[in-house]
Structure formats: C-alpha cells, structure tokens
Amino acid sequence: MNAYTGRKRVKAAFKREYADVVPAYPILGQFTAQLTGISIKEFLTDKQKLAKAEIAAYERYRPDIIVVMANLLMEAEAMGNELKFPDDGMCISKKLALEDKAKLNSLTIPDPYKDGNLPDYLDACKMIKDAITDSSVGAVIAGPWTIAIALRGATELIRDAMKDPAYVHELMEFTTEVAIRFGLAIPSTGAGMSYSEAPASASLISPKMYREFVFPYHKKAIGRLKEEGINCTLHI
Q1: Fold entry, domain 6-24+34-235
Q2: Which residues pair with 233 in a beta bridge?
Q3: What is the value of pTM for the model shown?
Q4: Percentage of the chain modeled with pLDDT above 90
Q5: Could you write out the three-class secondary structure of the chain?
Q6: Mode of pairing for the β-strands spanning 233-235 and 192-196
Q7: What is the pLDDT of residues 181-233, one digit of tens each?
Q8: Residue 103, C-beta contacts closer than 8 angstroms, at least 6 positions apart
Q9: Percent with pLDDT over 70 in the chain
C-alpha cells in the first residue's frame, strides 16, 4: 500500500491524480505563536521564534502544507513604512511611505537579501523547510495590489484610481517589480510560494477596478515567475 505524505498528496493534486485524501492546509497565521508561548510581536520580529512556532504547528496538526503566514507589510516596511508591533496583535503602519503620493519616484525596489525584515523571512522559511520533509512548505508574500495599498492606504488608493488612474498604473508597475523580485528570492529557501492579495477581492474593489488596475499586473508577476520555472498560487 502506498504511504501518502503531505507532499505526495499535494503533488497528486497538482497532477490531477488521486491520493488517499484531498490535501488540506489550514491558514493558521499568527495563531501558531500560542503553541510555543510567545507573543505575536515576537512571532513577527524574531525569525527563530517564527520558525519554531510554525514547526510546532506542523507537529501538532500535521497539515499537508505549512503556510508561513507572517507579516504582509514586510515589503512596505523595507521601502519606508513605519510599523507598530503590539504585543498581541498584528502589526500596523503608523506612517505610510506614500502619504505624499509624489514620493513614488523616490522609492527603490528593496533587495530581499539585504533590506528590512525580508532576509529574516527568507531565513525563517529555510529553517522551516529544513525541519519539515513530509509536508510542503509555502511562503506567503504580498502581491502588487497589497503592496500598493500598504504604501498608499486603501482609501487613498481607491480615490486615486478614480481621480488619477495614470498614477495608480505607475504605482502598480513599481509594486509589481517589488513583488517579482521578492518572489524570485523565495525558491532559495526551498519553499513554494503564494501571493496574498486579499485587498483585491470584491469585498473592497469592484470587478471593473480589478480588471483595470490589478489583473494586468497579476499576469505580469506570475508570468515572470513562470519564465523562471517558479510555481506560484494566488490568494484573493
């Protein structure tokens, strides 16, 4: 009898083949911090503790995929957002890099191996991947629209889309390159990857706005990764 592991179930699913069960992966997020008795602040700011918590979640629940869901403001922080880290709550931006929209031209694409907390996230993913061999490990990073909202603010960006669409396209071209560069770094950890784009859902923007301001950049980012042989999922 074939002994299925999480990795085998996921592989079968992508090949549209049968396995013993449908692969499952709970998106536990910062809840995993509780499994090791640390604060959410520690989970988000200490790569060793992040890795330990994710490994503890694997050992407790044995999911088919471990989703390394940490801080989706990492990219924006590396470009100038100032973050606040409550002890037991998600981090928030207390100052946005694009409060003044004219500062877009002063921003530069961060280096995933040098800037902000991006290198720590890569290190954590590698530690988790090295420790977990039976199940898949998936990194979760911000997609282009999520990065744009983090830099500019949701209300401001939607207002810009109505009053200054050319600016939004310029911003999205930039954030797409940010997302691509970080995405190209993820395979160095051995983990798979997903772009998180919850703000691109119909709960925030219309289908028309998605088609105009988001869809072309999703195609560009995922297409670029495919050119490099990198598989990527998209969570909206």
Answers
A1: TIM Barrel (3.20.20)
A2: 194
A3: 0.94
A4: 86
A5: CCCCCHHHHHHHHHCCCCCCCCCCCCCCHHHHHHHHCCCHHHHHHCHHHHHHHHHHHHHHHCCCEEEECCCCCHHHHHCCCEEECCCCCCCEEEECCCCCHHHHHHCCCCCCCCCCCHHHHHHHHHHHHHHCCCCEEEEEEECHHHHHHHHHCHHHHHHHHHHCHHHHHHHHHHHHHHHHHHHHHHHHHCCEEEEECHHHCCCCCCHHHHHHHCHHHHHHHHHHHHHCCCCCEEEC
A6: parallel
A7: 999 999 999 999 999 999 999 999 999 999 999 999 999 999 999 999 999 99
A8: 97
A9: 99
Q: 65 near 23, Cβ under 8 Å?
A: yes
Delimit the domains of the chain by residue range.
6-24+34-235
pLDDT for 1 beyond 50: no
Residue 2 pLDDT exceeds 60: no
